[in-house]
Amino acid sequence: MYILETKNLKKSFGGVHALNDLSISFAKGKLTGIIGPNGSGKTTLVNVLTGMQAITGGAVVVGGKSLHAIRPEELPRLGITRTFQDVRLFEQMTVGDNIMVVLTARGPYAALTERSERKREERVKEVLEKVGLWEKRHQLAYNLSYGQRKLLEITRVLAMDADIILLDEPFAGLFKEMVKVIVHIIGELKAAGKTVLLIEHNMDLIRELSDHVIVMDAGGLLAEGKPDAVLARHDVIEAYLGE
Length: 243
Fold this sequence. Notes:
This protein has 243 residues and is an alpha/beta fold.
């Protein structure tokens, strides 16, 4: 069963086609690695799927419903969340409040039904203890190390408990020990039946974590399938070497 699909998806910037009739599908409860040379459209795809950039043509299908426009504020309702290449936190808020803010419901109806303050505080403690950041809950996010900042962003994703999680290069620039922590978190997301889209340049991690791999090139689909089979293809190797 596919929980997320694109149908002839297009995204243009002037005369540049960043996504060019892209039709791909993501299986529910699986981790799909998205790879490709720089400029292949990977981050543009994530930006379009999360409403950061408007759809030029085609559609995104979420849970069987075709969408020709997505607004970022719709993501909780659609069960989608994401991280960014460049970490985006509330810098002048504490670590704990960075988690609390994503647990606070928005809108008049949600405000009537949102969880109690105590429940939210329990959830903050739960996720921060899980990733080893509970002792830093009173520190400003601005004062964390780069690796801790990346970890905090992923912890916000954990706290939101979305069904579809898009991770845009979560391992970039991290030391080995922090990589291990995030690999463990992703393993827990998979075990919980979450659908994960992972953009990553490290092919060892792609092999280790992915159930399925999609290779993009020039805004389109170059190849897809099981990690070992896809990464052994001549055209995939050539696309990377040609970078």
